[in-house]
Amino acid sequence: MPLFSTKSQPDPTKGNSSWSLKNIVDRVKKKKNSDLDDLMIIGIDFGTTYSGAAWATVADVENDSVNIVTRWPKFGLLEGKAPTVLFYEDGATMWGYGVPREVEPIQWFKLLLLKDEDQGEEIRNHEYLVKARKMLADEQKSTTDAIADYLKLLWQHVLETIVKARGKNVVEALTFHVVITVPAIWKNYARDSMFKAAKEAGILAPRRAGATTLSFAPEPEAAALSSICERGEDINEGDVYVICDAGGGTVDLISYKVESTDPITLQEAVVGSGGLCGGIFIDQEFQRICKARLGRHWSSLSQTGILEIMKDEWEHGIKRHFRPEDTSKEFVVKIPAEAFKNAGASSMNDSSKKPIIKDGRIHFTSENIERTFNKSFSDIASLLDKQIQQAKKSKLSVKGIILVGGLGCSPYLQDFLEVKYKRQNIEVLQTDGMKPLSLGVSFATEFNDELHDDIDKYWDETEDSYQVSGIMDWYIKKVRQL
């Protein structure tokens, strides 16, 4: 679940500052002893299949300009995230788009941070995780090592991006507050391992401007805050929302009740649940359909050729924008010429069955494409039904479903769920694309004898009250379970 969402936009270089950052700035202006003008907040969304980053200074937020990293090594297009994949060769570590297409990368290694007993059997025994365990063992790497290797390269790229935008001297004078997303269901030992990986990655390395601070943002809470705050006056105490974090591999759900609106305080209403029905399973179904239609020609495709179909034609094209509203529309997928090289030019045309192949292109119908989403969407709906039923057992009525994550940005998923839950008067919401979210920064706040130590308080004449400085003030708070 993203610290910020990366839904595809016409111009992926643009984004809006988050509600929480703007409110932090407003409050900081009232604190005469604040030094947040010299602070840069950097968010890292470390995902199972894709990862991204964003950054902003206080001045950026005031100007409605939060910066999304959209340029990646070895990739010529603007994109909000890079693949969470690694490949080791001859002492070198390749990551993201820099992993050659013809090799098999290590992927899904984030999920290995949880012990086997804390994972469901379906996830624990999935072929990707089994393969990732073996590949890491072959490299004599632990899961923490792999995450540290990935974060190190991601962090270096983020810093290079910031320096190019602001200049080395300016960046060196700023202190950093880094926020990394983590799944809400993670046990403390997994968070400890993430902290260790971040430290090994150099994120907390000493800097001239001062120590870098690091905090973790539970993914569903981050998404809930971003989405709920966008609704402004429509939010009321007692409202219940199901957060559906539909990512590349897993789909995780948890329900929250709005405990208060200033600040927005969320109370867990239904225990989190999840399953393996994310976007990658839609990809696998599309690949199965392509393979079945091409028959023997599929075996002539190299790994690079398959990736051209799956990444260029499908993932970066049809999948993102598909909606089955126009049944007459065709979706044309170009097949690399190597698939037909041993069969003659005539094999590039085949209208004997549907979808037809014409000039080396498969012409899919809307119905063909819709079929690839069916199983995943059905499983997501089943997970949502269980959350809604559990809420009803607690005498709570769900007001809305908030979709986040990569698959959560699918317009078809929103349409599908809107139709399903319309009769129950449950809204289906999506977060704005490319919107970063930082959940908290350190600054002065009013002294509370139940929360703060006497030694940290001081009298503020402007506020006419005792204050405490250097406190992490969270704009989203999670309290005890109902």
UniProtKB/TrEMBL annotation:
InterPro entries named in the record: ATPase_NBD
Coiled-coil ranges from the UniProt annotation: none
Segments traversing the membrane: none
SUPFAM superfamilies: Actin-like ATPase domain (SSF53067)
Name under which the protein is recorded: Actin-like ATPase domain-containing protein
Organism, as annotated: Cylindrodendrum hubeiense
